[in-house]
Amino acid sequence: MSRPVRQRKKVFITRAIDPAALMRLCAAAQIFVWDEEMPPPASALLSALAGADAILSMVTDKIDARMIASAPRLRVISNLAVGVDNIDVEAATRAGIAVGHTPGVLTEATADLAFGLLMATARRIAEADRHVRAGKWRTWGPMTMLGRDIHSSTLGLIGFGAIGQAMARRAMGFGMRVLYLKHRSGQRKPRRDAGLAGATGVSLNRLLARSDYVSIHVPLTEKTSRMIGAREFALMKPGAILINTSRGAVVDQAAMVGALKSGRLAGAGLDVTDPEPIAPRDPLLQLDNVVITPHIGSASIAARASMAAIAADNILDVFAGRLPRRCANPQVHLRHPK
Ligand code: GLV
User: 129-143, 194-208, 215-229 — which is least confidently predicted?
Assistant: First the structure.
């Protein structure tokens, strides 16, 4: 008597990831890896989604309502990131598709990079390196490459979740005062670690007026899109420095260029821009007081391996009939497997 053959689940992975996570997925499903440097174009995503039970996606993959509608078997979108702004989460939820993500394991790595950008910008490290490589280091100078103090200054945190708090811990270790944007009533209060009792919650206007450094740690949503624009730059302390490791679109980039040119902002340390990658002729690239890294906040070897492990677990959870352990839409009613 013949038994029905159970079809292997199909997983589309949009870029090569940590091999250990890949092997675990290979043991459970049929895997297709887009093994190119550049992300799959929309046409390749669409055709892969037509037959996939799961997709392991990156921040570079825009998974919109049209993609979701063309994915009849899809039950989980597992994003290798904490942010899920590249995915239409509402459309996924309506379609019964779980959205997994990778919070927690990238917190410290991202705060390390944010603090590194703060230091590089304050003390002009990248600019000084360019100066040396250009053969301009002719002597020691009492007024050469003067930067700003980090110790004894004030850091204002826009976003006081896990990454914002990890940034606060670093700042306190450097003798900085820490302000953070107080949650508005009705918002979920962040869980706060006891070592952060010295940090003070303030309004946005007060934070901008008092901070020597402002660092952004909010997800990109409709509410946070362009939340730092011309009005906010005008409220900042003259000579403040902006650090952004969240998403480029949280800042109005044209207004930031204006603030940098006028000297209102003394510098900016940016791991994210809008768009990404930044256009080669973008005015930000002409400014010496700007340090830009190519969206590498979580790019430590250990953090990326842990992210890949969680992204794989999130898929395997759904294959086992439960929600992903790190689920961005826990209210979803998972659709039945086809
Ligand atoms: C990276 O940007 C992330 O959201 O993890």
Answer: 194-208
Residues 84 and 214 in one domain: no
Judgement on whether residues 163 and 33 belong to the same structural domain of the protein: no
Element (H, E) at 255: helix 253-262
Tell me the residue ranges of DSSP E strands in 114-224.
154-158, 177-181, 200-202, 213-216
Tens-digit pLDDT profile for residues 74-93: 999 999 999 999 999 999 99
Task: Indicate whether 81 and 131 sit together in one domain.
Answer: no
Tell me, using a 6 A CB cutoff, whether residue 116 lines ligand 1.
no
Residue 82 near ligand 1, beta carbon < 6 Å: yes
Contact present, 233 and 260 (Cβ < 8 Å) = no
The pLDDT of 225-246, averaged and rounded, is: 98
Of the listed ranges 185-194, 248-257, 274-283, the least confidently predicted one is 185-194
Mutate which of 58, 60, 89, 106 for ligand 1 pocket (most atoms within 8 A of beta carbon): 106
Q: Is residue 202 part of a domain?
A: yes
